[in-house]
Each structure stands twice: as C-alpha cells, then as structure tokens.
Amino acid sequence: MSEPALLQLVTALTAGHIRVVDLTQTLSPEFPQIVLPPEMAQAWPFRVEEASRYDARGPGWYWNNFSCSEHTGTHFDAPIHWISGRHLPNNATDTIPAEHFIAPAYVIDCSRESATDADFLLTKTFIQQWERRHGRIAKGSWVLMRTDWSKRTDPVAYQNIDATGQHTPGPDTEAVQFLVDERQVLGFGSEAIGTDAGQAFHLRPPYPCHYYMHGAGRYGLQCLTNLDLLPPTGAVIIAAPLKIKDGSGSPLRVVALVPEANTAPARTAAKKTARKIKTAPKRKKHPRKKR
Amino acid sequence: MTRPLVRPPRKNPILRTRMPTLPPSGRSRVALGLTAAAARGQLELQVCRDCGTVQYPPREACKACLSHRLDWKPQDGKGELLSETTLRHANELFFRERVPWRLGIVRLDSGPTVVAHLHEDCAAAPTRVRVQANLDRAGQAVLVAVPEKGTPNMAEDRQLREMTCDPKFRKVLITDAKTPLGRATVEAIVAAGADLVWAGFAEPWKKPPGFERLSALPQVSLVPLDLTDSRAVKSLAGEIGGRVDILINTADHHRNYGIAAREGVETARAEMDINYFGLLRLAQEFAPVMRARGADGQSSAVAWVNVLSIFALSNFPPHGTYSASKAAALSLAQCLRAEMATTGVRVINVFPGPIDDEWNQALLPPKIAPQRLAADIVAALRGGAEDIYPGDIAQDWLARWRDNPKALERELAVQR
Amino acid sequence: MSRRRTGYDDVVVTTPVTLPYVRYSIRGAHWFLAGALAELFKQSGFRKDEVEGLCVSSFTLAPDSAVGLTQHLGMSLRWLDHIPMGGACGVVALRRAARAVQSGDAEVVACVAGDTNHTDSFRLNVGSFSQFAQDAVYPYGSGGPNASFAFLTSYYMRTYGATREDFGKLCIDQRANGIKHPHAMLKKPLTLDEYLNARLIADPLRLYDCVMPCAGADAFLVLRRSEAEKRGLPYARILATIEGHNTFPDDPIQYRGGWALDCDEMYAQAGIGPQDIDVLSAYDDYPVINVMQIEDLGFCKKGEGPDFVRRHTFTADGSFPFNTSGGQLTLGQAGASGGFLGLIEIIRQVTGRPLGAAISNARFGLVSGFGMINYDRGLCSGAAILAAGQSS
C-alpha cells in the first residue's frame, strides 16, 4: 500500500467513515469450551487467578495470571491444528505469513436457516446463490458464516448439546471443497464453537472444514460475534494470532473495518464486483452494543 | 425421652452471632489413642498385651503389670452407670454456655471406671448403659454413655448434638451434584431433613442422565459452581457462604492412568485442579465465613466433608495420578481441619473404596454404590466420626495400611 | 497385717499460724507463704536462720517449687521437702517433718502451706490438675471437683440412705462453729432451709456443699519437745499417723478412703480408741467426705454414717465436736492450706488456744486429710492423733 492510502485509511477512521467492529467474545471463565469425550484430552477453559490487587501480594498494582487452551474463546485455527495440515510449510502460529492477518471478509447470512435448524449445513448451492446476489468471493478472503449463534448468550443454548452430541450449524463437505478449491479462500469463520457443524463428526470425512481447510493451508476463526454488524462484502478483517511457537491456534482479538456507507439502509443491485463497496441488505438493526 | 428436634425459629438479626467456644482440648499424647479410634467412630481402650488388663484413663504403662505393651482394642463399651450428676456451673465458657449438662460415672464390664457425658435417655443410676467415643467440638475424643438399647430420636439428644453434625434443619452445599455420587448425596441429605440443599454444577451444557430430577426436589436449589474457576467460587461464597452449615465437597476428577500410560500432564493437572486446587479454592472462600458461624444457634455451621479416596492412603498405580491428587487433597484437608478446629466446625474426610461409576468400570467388584456412600456420609455427619472408610475395599485397604503400609504398597504395585 | 511402727517419741508440733484468708488476691503464692513463715517465726521466737528444715505445700507456686522458695525467701536449709498432696498435705508434712527431727536430720522444721487465688486461678488449676484430669475429666463439663464429688455424693446417698438433711446438719453445725472464728469467710449462721434450697451446683450438690476457693497460708513448727519447752512454746504430741495413696483402686466408685485400711493400726500405735477422741478435724471440701471419714476412722461402721449424724451434734459443745474451726466450708479453701487447716485447728484445741469455738479439756484430737482428685476419686488420705502436751 502507498503512504497516501494509509493516511486515507486513518483519516477515514478518524472521521468515522470507517467503523471498527469487534468480532471477539469476551474471554471469561463462563464462556464454554469445546466438548470432547471425557477420556480424551480437553481444551482448558479460560481461567484467571488474581495475582495481586493493591494488597499484600502486590501493594500498588492489580494483575492476574490466566490459563486457557490455544482453542479457547474467539480463536484462530492454524493448519497444523489438523492432521491434514501437519506437514505444510508455515503452518503454525509463529510461521504464518503476517500478510494473512489482514484480509477482506465475505459474510454469508445463514441466520434465518440456523434459527429453525440447529444442524443447518451451508451448501455449495447456498454459496452460489449468495454469490449471485453479492458477487463472486475473491481469492484470499475470509468467508464468515453468519448464523447469529453468538446471540445465544446462555451457554447451554450456545452449546446445544443433547444425548447425540452438539447441534450447531456449519458447512458441508462440498461447500468446504468449493471454497478451498474453486474460491481459494484464506479461511472460514463461524460463530459457533467450531468451524465445523456440531454433528460434523458424522460427515465424510469427519470435520470436513478442519480437514480440507487446514489440509490446504487455510485458516479457521471460531466463536466470532457481531457478524450481523458486517456487510456481506466490503469489510476487512484483522485477525492476528499470538505468536506461539509451534502453536496450533490462539485466542485473539478479531476486528473488522467496515466502511460507514455500508450501514445505510439502502438496497443496491446485487451484481457487483467483490472489491466494490456496496450496501448491505436492509435488515433490522440490533440495539445491543456490547455484551 | 429425647424429643424430636423442632425447626429453629429464624435468626434474630439484631442479636450478635455468638462466637464459637470449645470444650477443653488439651490431651496427653497417650490419650490421643482414644481420639484416633473415635475419629473412625470406634471406642478403643488400652489393653495390656501381657496381662490382658483393660484400662482407662490412658496410661504409659499397664497399671497391673507395668508392661509397656499396650494395644488399643475395640470395646463394646457396655457397663453400669454407677452415679450421675447434672452440672449447673462450669469453669469453661463452652460448658457455661450449655449447662445444665448431664454426666455419669460408669463401671465398664471390662473393668475400668469412666467419667462420661450422659445421654438424657439413660435411666437413673444404677442402670445399664453403653459407652461410646465421640469427637467433641474441640475435635478430641470424649466418652458418651447412651442407653444400652437404642431409643427413638436418640441422635437428637441436646448434648450429643454438640458432638455430631446432624444435617436435619441445616443448609447444605454439595459442590458437584452432577456425578452419580453427587446426585445420591443430594437425595440422601434431603432425606435426612436438611432445610435447603444447594446443588452445585459445572459446565451446565453437560446434562448427565438423572440430573434434571434433582431440581424437582423442593429443598434443592441448583447453583453454578466450577471449582476450577476461582472467581466463581468466590462469587458463590459471597452469595450463600454465610448460610452454609454443612459443605460436602463431592467434586472429583478421575482418570485411569498411571505415569507411563498417559503422555503429558494434562489429565493429571485436571485432576489436581479439581481434587486439590478445587478444595483449596473452596476452603479459601467458604471456610472463613463458616468459621464465624460455629456457634450460630441450633443450625450453626458444623461440618465440612471432603470426599477423598482410599487411594489417598497409598497409591493405586493404575489410577496413579488420581491417587496422587487425592493424597494432596488429604494433606490439604488436614490443614483445613487444623484451621477449622478453633471454631468447632468439623472436617470429615471420606475415604471410599472404588465407587461403582464410569471411571471404575474396569475394576472388579466389590465397588461401593453411590447411594451407599451417600448414606455413609450422612451417617458420619449424624454419628460424629471424622474419618470414614466406606465400602469393603476401603475397609480392606485400611486394615492392610494400618497393619503395614509398606506391605500395602507392595500389594498395590502388583495389582493390575 | 499389724506392723511395728516406731513412735514419735518426744517430737512435738507447735505454733499454729494462719495468714487470714482473702477471696481473691493480686499477690503471688510466695507472698502468702512468706507471710505465714514470718508470723511463724514471730510467734515462735525462732529466727529465720535458726530453722534448718522447710516443708512446703502449694499449688500456685509454679514455676517454682520448694527449692525456688528457699532463694526467694533467703532461707538456707539442711532439709527440704515439697508435699504436693492437697488435702492430705498437713498430715503428710507432719509425718515427714517429725521423722526428720526424730532422726536428727533437722532440729526444727517449718511446715507451710498456702496459695494465692487470682480470678482465674481456680479454672487453670483444675484444668491442669493432673494428666488424668486433663485427659478424662476436665473435658467433661469442666465442673472441677464439684462434678467428681457429685458422683460420690449421689452414689453414697443412694447406697447408704444418706439424705440432704444429714449433710445439712453437718454443714449447719460446722457453720455454727465457724462463725465464732475470726477468719470466717461466711459469717452468718446457716439454716437448714438455706442449705436445702441453695443454688444447685452439680446435682445433688448445692452451694453450701461446696467450699469457696480463696487465698491464704498456714504454718506450724515441728521440733523436739525439749526445744519447745526451752522456748516456752505450747505444743502437741504426735501419737500416731497414717497415710495412704490410691488405696482401694478396685472399688468401682469411691465410697471409702485409705483410712479404712489401717486406722486400727493408728489407734493401736496411739494406744487409744475412737471413743477417746475429743475433737475431730476432717477434711471437709464436701460433706459426703466428712461422713466417709467418720466411718473410715472407726467412729461408726461403713454405711452407718447417716445414722451417726442423726444421733450426734457437731458443734464444739456438742456430742461429737467436729471441725470446730468451721472447716473449709466456713473459712474457705486457700488451696494447699486446706490440707493444713484441720491440723492447725487440732493443735490449737489440744494446746487450749483455739481462735474460735473452744472445747473444754481436749486431750486427744484426730486430724484427717484427704486430697488429690486425680481422676475419679481422692487418692491421698492421712490421719494423725495429737495429744495435749504438758502445757508450758
């Protein structure tokens, strides 16, 4: 990028022409973590131990020690996370090229479908229909599956587990292969606890989004929130995982830069190029500002 | 005859909560033999190995033949009440606050004359009685003469209740109600007449079969509680700590690995996080406020129960890291007991044998049913022991351990 | 079982002194012991450095013992004893001192007993009285000796038919004796109604069955008769003494004391019988023990005590002069002094110098001691028969 472009960006941010949307869930002990059969190793939930609070343990300062998994809260999945990506170059959090941390995002709204079907699977057809309205997904972009799952603030509803396991939406195998091979996306993001659907163990292969995305050196983002505040196209995501040596992923802060014009409640023609700014479809604004 | 306990009136909030006082706790070292047995709920007296004399009070040598070879042996405690008195005046605060107080002097059939607390259902002297050993509020053994044959409501004798931790009309926190033992304990404590049971549960999205049934019990209030979450423990203590009369820590993380069978420390750490640090977190948050309520009327704070494991005594290598976490918890529980001792709140350690649950699936019977273990916990609260070893395996291992801990270590080393 | 006991020849006891008792004191035991010794030296005319032997009894001297007291009071001695035997310490001190003088180990022995009483002394003393008390009594209601004697009293009443009125009669007569004593703590006569309806302490014991702990000291001198006569000191002769410890250990509960074992020997040694005794000082921390002593010292058979009480009067002018000083029940229990009090009174009566109620022409006096409720019973017992000496 040229210097004037960056200055332009800063000016737009300062002027409010570009909004910053926080796509991150708060790291808290209450936020649920992935459930695996109990005999398997478990992801640590976020836990915090107070080190001192202006007291005998540290008279003038407050600080905590925390612990969590690489896959706790809103987090990033590196290719090395999955067995299919284990031999790829630059596949861990410390070796991923830094330029991948900033990329455009395409937001596919599946919220209506997910509301009625917790096991909703995003299909290739669904994506192609979406592209007909919003344009072709450009190479090197994030595809974010908006389900409004993050609005389930009750952890029980969020996890949505019954005797057959978890029931959350995700992509099917064909959709993943389409995004990887035919659109060459940077990665796939979701609001639920995994990039794969809750029942994806029963897909072929099991957990296709993990298998194919990471097998192709692509990334995952999960436990995202506020995807409803993003336009279908035109947002830019900043998602830089902690530089953990040989890390399979990391909790991180994910923010989106959104051109202000996008929030105007105006409908425009569907057929636009991906790079061109366009308005979001008219929808109800969520009064919630912050959890 | 002892009248059944009635629900106490609500506490008068303008009156100062009484500070806990204790009966005299000083004992010679040799007298602690009585405490050692009473801690298990048993009466044992010194018996001379050389001449067979049974003696009391405890001595350093046989009063008959001066032998040092004295064994503490179980006694049936039967004897005749020779005389009695009712104290109306006492030198120590604990008894000053509790007079009148009935005492008796009993000639045991085995020989010794003993001074004992006297149950109100014992008839006037001379009469037959049975002497048992209880731990008093100071945690020291005392003898209690009770009717030779049981009477209705016997456990509700006013004096005996000063030595026991009856859950009736009390408020009880059970830290993890989701395990089979947790559920059974909730049900047993409700059946024992508790006023209110807070049933803790972690990871609310996991609902084990049968858990929903608990919330249907009118006495039960489900409370989120994850012992790995310091803030959650602190928060719950802030909400209900001042009302908890009995805390039963059923939270347990159990995996079946030794050292070689599992790479890494993740499961071992999870075991420590619940079994050891979980207890520490609970103790730091709940113990201080319970300590302050050690004399808060009929339904004072009275007991803290740790469900440990017989594996705490000696490592069971197939469950090696679990055993270690329980040994750590036992050590911490001893610290807690010492810190609670000044207030009369009893710390009861439960050392069950393998519980018949998913984590002991591969162990051969006998295994203790969760319901049976829960019943034993209630019995310990009512009876006044502070260390119980429920189940056949626990009893077997305890006997081996007391006999020769090194032998038990070897025996467990070859058990697979 | 009869044995040959050497008599005390011409060893005598003289100069009974009492430092008046007070309910509470801020002073240490040393203060009281020093006061009694000073009075002893003053009344006897002995200088401190003339006394070669010292016999001490005290519960509250800790951490000192008799040894520490020698330096504390600047006494250089050739003979020293410490008698931690509570209610029996007077008789035992007398026995020890008499043999020391008789053998020539010491020419003159001062016997002293005393204790202070701070507001918390009694509780502390009771709580740490003995290992058995600490382990097996004090945790049971912390009632102290009240509880122990309540057991014995209740048992005795049930077994031998004694009534509260019987004990009351003894207490009333003792009080009648005691109110004539200048040191009486309780200065009013006791009525039967007051006795029977007093505040319950430990059933069946009520307030006037129990002694009042206080502070004070008593002392006397043991020396050769020739020395006493040389100095013009009124004295009593020692005819016989006994002591016993843990005497009937197999009795399920105490209903007799050690006197029952060998009081016959004592009378034999004295050459007199119970019928010759003109005055009895019994250890009286509770009335039941008075009745036991009357029985076990041969004034009646075991179990006939209640009847004996009903047949007699116990004032100084009564048919059986008993605890003519008023005893501890009237004067208070100044710790170990309680073990001296009865002996002091017998010396005073047989030397014709009582401070309070007097009996006429007391030739033979019997003093009895009892003490140390180590666990469930009093372990120490002792008795001595004193006779009037030739008055100076």
Draw up the topology in text.
The complex is a heterotrimer of chains A (291), B (416) and C (392).
Chain A: H1 3-15, E1 18-22, E2 47-55, E3 58-67, E4 75-77, E5 102-109, H2 111-116, E6 121-122, H3 124-134, E7 142-146, H4 155-159, E8 161-162, E9 165-166, E10 170-171, H5 173-182, E11 187-190, H6 208-215, E12 219-222, E13 235-239, E14 249-251, E15 254-259
Parallel strand pairs in A: 5-7, 6-10, 7-11, 11-12
Antiparallel strand pairs in A: 1-15, 2-3, 4-12, 4-14, 5-13, 8-9, 13-15
Chain B: H1 32-39, E1 44-48, E2 54-55, E3 70-74, E4 78-87, H2 93-96, E5 101-108, E6 113-118, E7 127-135, E8 141-147, H3 158-161, E9 171-174, H4 180-191, E10 196-201, H5 211-214, E11 220-224, H6 230-240, E12 246-249, H7 266-291, E13 303-307, H8 320-340, E14 346-350, H9 370-383, E15 387-388, H10 392-403, H11 405-413
Parallel strand pairs in B: 6-8, 9-10, 9-12, 10-11, 12-13, 13-14, 14-15
Antiparallel strand pairs in B: 1-2, 1-3, 4-5, 4-7, 5-6, 7-8
Chain C: E1 11-22, H1 29-44, E2 53-57, H2 66-72, E3 79-82, H3 89-103, E4 108-115, H4 121-127, H5 131-136, H6 145-160, H7 164-178, H8 192-196, E5 200-202, E6 205-206, E7 215-224, H9 225-231, E8 235-245, H10 259-270, E9 279-281, H11 287-296, H12 305-311, H13 327-331, H14 338-350, E10 364-373, E11 378-388
Parallel strand pairs in C: 2-3, 2-4, 9-10
Antiparallel strand pairs in C: 1-7, 1-8, 4-7, 5-6, 8-11, 10-11
Helix pairs in contact in C: 7-11, 11-12
Question: Can you give a write-up of this model?
Answer:
The complex is a heterotrimer of chains A (291), B (416) and C (392). Chain A is of the alpha/beta class and 291 residues long. Helix content of chain A is 18%, strand content 24%. A 9-stranded mixed beta sheet of chain A has the order 1-15-13-5-7-11-12-4-14. In chain A, strands 2-3 form a two-stranded antiparallel ribbon. The longest helix of chain A has 13 residues. Chain A starts with a helix and ends in a 32-residue tail after the last strand. The termini of chain B are far apart. The model of chain B has no long low-confidence stretch (mean pLDDT 95). In chain B, strand 1 and strand 2 form a beta hairpin. Chain B is globular, with a radius of gyration of 22 Å. Chain C is of the alpha/beta class. In chain C, the strands form 2 sheets. In chain C, strands 3-2-4-7-1-8-11-10-9 form a 9-stranded mixed beta sheet, with helices on both faces. In chain C, strands 5-6 form a two-stranded antiparallel sheet. In chain C, helix 11 packs across helix 12. Chains in contact: A-B, B-C. Chains A and B meet through strand 2 and helix 4 of A and helix 6 and helix 7 of B.
